[in-house]
Amino acid sequence: MADTRPTVWVSQPLIDAAIAPLRDRVQLRSTDTVTAWSPDQIAEQLASADGAIITLNERIGAAQVADAAQLQVIANVGVGYNNLDVDALSAAGILASNTPDVLTGTTADLGFALLMATARRITESERWLREGQWQQWSFQTMLGADIHGSTLGILGMGRIGQGIARRGAHGFGMKVLYHNRSQLPAATEAEVGATYVDLDTLLAQSDHLLLVLPYTPASHHLIDAVALAKMKPSATLVNIARGGLVDEIALADALANGRLAAAGLDVYEGEPKVRPELLALRNVVLTPHIGSASLATRTAMVQLAVDNLVAGLGLDGGLSRMPSAINADAAMAARVTLGKKTGKR
Ligand code: GLV
């Protein structure tokens, strides 16, 4: 008898235990190998899928869904979704979702870890020690910048930004300034311990500036040579959002020429490639996009993606809504126009 269960493409190895509940409900097409899918291969996979669970590695736009007539849901395992052309998906009646909330604390932790490693020169010290350069204890070795009592700037004040603000204000006694598209309600500002300022003030006053804003065409290279010149030469810059927020050539230049003290980067414009100009610098801490990478959080992210997929495909008999759909209204409206079945959201 023909297998009538929907086909679901899982683009990368994820967390098996969290995928397992899907096994008897769908025809799963998955891989054990981390794969750099080409745009055409992604289109090919989607062309015969009803749903997909994908990661930030897969860029999906109009061309990738052009032949995906039966595709109903794309569940992105990640909070940022600049890898998706949401307008193109909506126009094709394809529901998309992300994984907010479950990764907030873990990602805020990583932001703080990177800030501390960068300001206190942790990885630089370790490299120096391992190279056998520590001949004698010296008063002047690896002098860094303080975290406690300093001014923390946060650019982008969503859930992760707020988590970082709390850690800074309540954990380390920092003065916390932030800039965001919209100012938080006064009660939230008081709870997280942060004060709203304009972007120039944030750049000028921060001892440590953390980037946690979404990457969009409007925020492309927001931190460029001009912005960097407004920062204190003693400042630390940390980026845990997306590489494209920063002009990396301008950043490397500022770091090499004493116009910025140090940078901590978890994300890169051309990742997984990291610019040689950055790799050559001693005053940069580099991590391979591990913001949400704790076992518990990565498991929760896959579970949330699975929940979105199950609801989006109506596998639960329409009992639940997608917990974190990105484009439910637009996609459902397009389905009506396209004469596609409306399914569940
Ligand atoms: C990771 O960068 C994410 O957006 O979840």
From TrEMBL:
Signal peptide range: none
Domain D-isomer specific 2-hydroxyacid dehydrogenase catalytic: 10-313
UniProt keyword annotations, A-Z: NAD, Oxidoreductase
SUPFAM superfamilies per the UniProt record, alphabetical: Formate/glycerate dehydrogenase catalytic domain-like, NAD(P)-binding Rossmann-fold domains
One Gene Ontology term of the molecular function aspect: glyoxylate reductase (NADPH) activity
Record Gene3D superfamilies: NAD(P)-binding Rossmann-like Domain (3.40.50.720)
D-isomer specific 2-hydroxyacid dehydrogenase NAD-binding domain location: 112-291
Gene Ontology cellular component annotations, sorted alphabetically: cytosol
Keyword Ligase: no
CDD domains: GDH
A Pfam family: 2-Hacid_dh
Coiled coil segments of this chain: none
Matching InterPro entries: D-isomer_2-hydroxyacid_DH, D-isomer_2_OHA_DH_cat_dom, D-isomer_DH_CS1, D-isomer_DH_NAD-bd, NAD(P)-bd_dom_sf
Sequence similarity: Belongs to the D-isomer specific 2-hydroxyacid dehydrogenase family.
Protein name (database record): 2-hydroxyacid dehydrogenase
Native species: Stenotrophomonas geniculata N1
